Amino acid sequence: MRLIKVFNEGRIINERLYNELQDLEMNKVPEFNGCGNEFKPNRDWWVGVENGQIIAYCGCLYSHTFCLFNRSWVHPKHRGNGIQKKLIKVREKAAREKNALIITYITIDNPASGNNLISQGFKMYIPSWQYAGTDKVYFKKDFK
After folding, report:
1. Number of domains in the chain
2. What pLDDT shows up at residue 83?
3. Which range of residues forms the domain containing residue 19?
4. What CATH number should be reported for the domain holding residue 97?
5. Does the global pTM surpass 0.85?
6. Can you list the positions of beta strands (E) in the chain?
């Protein structure tokens, strides 16, 4: 699998893969259906490509000194092969370049993602404002 950045802070880098990613995000990945357009100027997006097909993708958004990992998806046939850890690392590198505190969350029924975050040095925390809802588990990682 090759990771390719397709969207950089409002600028489309690879139009074909960007269009395919938008189709996946808006129409084909049930867990994100109806979440709205996440392709905004303060966002970055990457896709994992194998044999010309998108098998994974992830995004993050930046706000001041924060980087929120806002999406991560791996095709079910490719889960369990370390791809999510690669998606974490590529976003972590981008956040580190901006010296940003990373925050993210998972649904409570997704312990595999929680384990991947913990294995990459993330710590669970309870934010004062639970921005994604009270049914989520929150994580953060600071480089300082």
Report:
1. 1
2. 97
3. 2-141
4. 3.40.630.30
5. yes
6. 2-8, 11-12, 43-50, 53-63, 66-74, 101-107, 123-125, 136-141
